[in-house]
Amino acid sequence: MASGVKAVILLSGGLDSTTTMAIARSEGYDLYALSINYGQRHRLELDKALKIASFFSAKEHKIIDVDLRGIGGSALTSDIEVPKDRGVDEMSHGIPVTYVPARNTIFLSIALSWAEVIEADSIYLGVNILDYSGYPDCRPEYIKAFENMANLATRAGVEGKNRIKIKTPLINMTKAEIIKKGIELGVDFSITHSCYDPPEEGIACGSCDSCLLRKKGFIEAGITDPIKYAA
After folding, report:
1. Domain layout of the chain by residue ranges
2. CA distance linking residue 141 with residue 137, whole number of Å
3. CA–CA distance, 185 with 19 (Å, rounded to integer)
């Protein structure tokens, strides 16, 4: 791909979005990182996102404020307790309280707005349907529906100048496969953050769904996780 082709990458500061950014870079895109400060319990991830965007020499990195805590409805945006020490089977049944209502729809809409302004070719999102916690807005049919809507709702799409693509390169990968891909592409996982409920000292709790899935992924990949856990 010729240089100068732009992509917006939704960058949370976590393992998946960081590997997604590495993939976008490997595919030749100029990187425009977008992080959302939505009132999340684990705001520490935004500090990591700054480091990751710098690590990948992103052309630009925006952090947009959206107050989803004002709406609530999730353990990540309210005082609902974050589930701990759940087994993988338990995680895979039902939609957990860490689901943030309409989060990916909101995030993708903001990314779409920026993509249209900078005339980006693609939006990258690090969702996957394997080793995930049951979120409805991580499914392939949702991504396809949003992409169709995006090209109906933008001037660029209507005028036929630029059809936006929503790219989800991790969607059929296990956490172990994602980690291996990241290592292959030079990702420094020590600067990523996955924990939903970090203790005050800022290290990972080690017991929430996200921490447990991350730990499982590194074990299955046969790679040592470089971050510290409280448990």
Report:
1. 6-221
2. 9
3. 8
Query: Is the domain covering 6-221 a CATH 2.40.100.10 domain?
Result: no
pLDDT under 50 in the chain at which residues?
Answer: 2
Residue that the structure tokens 């499982």 belong to: 216
Residue pair 119/162 in contact (Cβ under 8 Å)? The answer is yes
Per-residue pLDDT reduced to its tens digit, 99-151 = 999 999 999 999 999 999 999 999 999 999 876 557 889 899 999 999 999 99
The model's pTM is 0.94
Q: Collect contacts of 37-40 with beta carbons under 8 A, ≥24 apart.
A: 37/63, 37/64, 37/65, 37/66, 38/65, 38/66, 38/67, 38/68, 38/69, 38/77, 38/100, 38/103, 38/106, 39/66, 39/67, 39/68, 39/69, 39/70, 39/77, 40/68, 40/76, 40/77, 40/100
